[in-house]
Amino acid sequence: MIRFDHVSKKFGGSTQALSDITVEIPDGEFVFLIGPTGAGKSTLLKLIIRELVPTEGSIYVDDWNIENLQKQQIHLLRRYVRMVFQDIKLLYDRTIFENVAVGMEVLNKKEQDIEKGVRDVLALVELRDKADQFPAQLSAGELQRVGIARAIVGGPKILLADEPTGNLDPETSEDILEILKEINKLGTTVIVVTHNNTIVDKNKKRTITLRSGKIISDEMKGKYHFAKRTHHDKKHDEKEEKHTHEKD
Fold first, then answer.
1. What pLDDT, on the 0 to 100 scale, is given for residue 167?
2. Of 112, 91, 109, whose CA–CA distance to 100 is shortest?
3. Apex 100 CA angle, 124 and 61, nearest 5
4. Residue 235 pLDDT level (bands cut at 50, 70, 90)
5. 128 Cβ partners below 8 Å, 6+ apart?
6. Phi, psi of 128 (to 5 degrees)
7. Domains of the chain
8. Considering just the CA atoms, what is the radius of gyration of the chain in Å?
9. CA nearest 5: which of 19, 18, 23?
10. pLDDT tens digits, 9-32
11. Secondary structure of the chain as H, E, C letters
12. What is the rounded average pLDDT of the residues 84-102?
């Protein structure tokens, strides 16, 4: 379970990235997180993996109180909660198998366990036949699948995906969503940040909408829609996007 209890996040002591967020995401749920650029979506994900800490309020991931987590415990949280980035950051001098295997090597898994685990997740993302190829030989959609495979190898309980279809064509985007839904069916909680209105409207999953750092809607079978932006909204979004990129 993920729970935000009156969470706010400020950058530089003044820019309000998130404001009084209270939300709960039960185990095994599939959630779309939507909103305009700079609305606070990436900030929210980074709080979950403790790349950032809240200015106010509390965040809980099962038994972990995120803001009280010691530095030496963060790696344990990130074995439990994995993230797929739009910028996949693969190692281009290693094969696809070796890129995915990194996720298990850091867990000090035995060689035979790594072999089976990597083969299993490559099969799940339909890349078993690409195991011995290098990233430069793959398409953008295939590279995104490698990123997903690397994130789920070893069996995390929560998967965060930040714009996983952002640079992909509609057909490939649908393929990526189907993979994420299959991972969710296996019991993994999945949270997807997206600007893809077609995917959101078609899949009718729980949809949380952020605007200017606040939750403006939380629908169990949501659609992609935003309220009209005010001048204040635009100023907030521009500031939050600037600070998020600085953290990246």
1. 81
2. 91
3. 80
4. low
5. 119, 122
6. -60, -35
7. 2-247 (3.40.50.300)
8. 18
9. 23
10. 999 867 899 999 999 999 999 999
11. CEEEEEEEEEECCCEEEEEEEEEEECCCCEEEEECCCCCCHHHHHHHHCCCCCCCEEEEEECCEEHHHCCHHHHHHHHHHEEEECCCCCCCCCCCHHHHHHHHHHCCCCCHHHHHHHHHHHHHHCCCHHHCCCCHHHCCHHHHHHHHHHHHHCCCCCEEEEECCCCCCCHHHHHHHHHHHHHHHHCCCEEEEECCCHHHHHHHCCEEEEEECCEEEEEECCCCCCCCCCCHHHHHHHHHHHHHHHHHC
12. 91
In one-letter notation, the amino acid at residue 79 is R
Report pLDDT digits (tens) over 133-155. Answer: 999 999 999 999 999 999 999 88
In whole angstroms, what is the distance from residue 244 CA to residue 248 CA? 6
If 0-12 CB within 10 Å is exposed, 13-18 middle and 19+ buried, where does residue 97 land? Answer: buried
- Is the pLDDT at 241 greater than 90? The verdict is no
Q: How far apart are CA 200 and CA 198, in angstroms?
A: 6
Q: Which two tokens stand for residue 33?
A: 């997180």
User: Confidence class of residue 242 from pLDDT cuts 50, 70 and 90?
Assistant: low
Helices 140-152 and 96-105, packing angle to 10 deg: 20
pTM of the predicted structure, to 2 decimals: 0.87
